[in-house]
Amino acid sequence: MRWTIIIFSILLGISPLVLGFGNVEAALWNSLILGVALLVCGIAKWYKAAFIGAIWVFLAPFILGFSSIPGALWTSLVIGAIIAVWTGIKWFGSKSTQSAVA
Predict the structure, then answer these.
(1) At residue 3, does pLDDT exceed 80?
(2) In this structure, is the dihedral angle defined by the CA atoms of residues 42, 45, 46 and 52, taken in order, positive or negative?
């Protein structure tokens, strides 16, 4: 779980340079800032914060206006969805396990 977040946050952070959308400021800064933030969340095992960050990553192309750039759009959608699903399973799955035990 933790390594999934760490790996995909690094991919998010380097994606503007690798996929060539570093000239779009909103996409560049969103990827860099959220990449670092999600990396910290992964290292610290802050799954709730990572879930919220992943939802932002998923919605950012539409909110910040870079949905017309395919590389930035698909990177945000795929990485945001993967991290949101993994952290959601961890976060919500642990709640249902605890309530079943109690």
Answers:
(1) yes
(2) positive
Residue partners of 53: CB distance under 8 A and separation at least 6: 34, 37, 38, 41, 83
Helices assigned H by DSSP within 20-69: 25-44, 47-64
d(CA 13, CA 11): 5
- Interatomic CA distance for residues 10 and 5, integer angstroms: 9
Contact between 65 and 26 under an 8 Å Cβ cutoff? The reply is yes
Judged against a pLDDT cut of 90, whether residue 73 lies above it is answered with yes
Q: What angle do CA 15, 1, 41 make, to 5 degrees?
A: 60
* Per-residue tokens: 92: 């919500």
- Contact indicator for 69, 40 with CB cutoff of 8 Å: no
Question: Mean pLDDT across the stretch 63-78?
Answer: 96
Amino acid identity, position 51: F
Nearest Cα to 47, choosing from 89, 96, 98?
Answer: 89
